[in-house]
Amino acid sequence: MRGRKRIYYTAAQRAEIWDRWQRGETLEQIARQLDGRRHAVKRLIAASGGIRPAARRRARHTLRLDEREEISRGLAQHQSIRAIARSLSRSPSTISREIARHGGSARYRATTADQRAWDRARRPKRCKLAVHDTLANEVATGLKAWWSPQQIAGWLKRRYPDQPSRQVSHETIYRTLFVQTRGALKKELLSHLRRTRAMRRSRHHTLKSGQRGQITNAVSISERPPEVEDRAVPGHWEGDLVFGGRNSQIATLVERHTRYVMLLKVADRNTETVINALIDNANRLPRELYGSLTWDRGSEMADHCRFTLATDIQVYFCDPRHPWQRGSNENTNGLLRQYFPKGMDLSAVSQKELDAAARSLNGRPRKTLNFETPAERYEKIVATIY
Question: What pTM does this model have?
Answer without folding.
Answer: 0.51
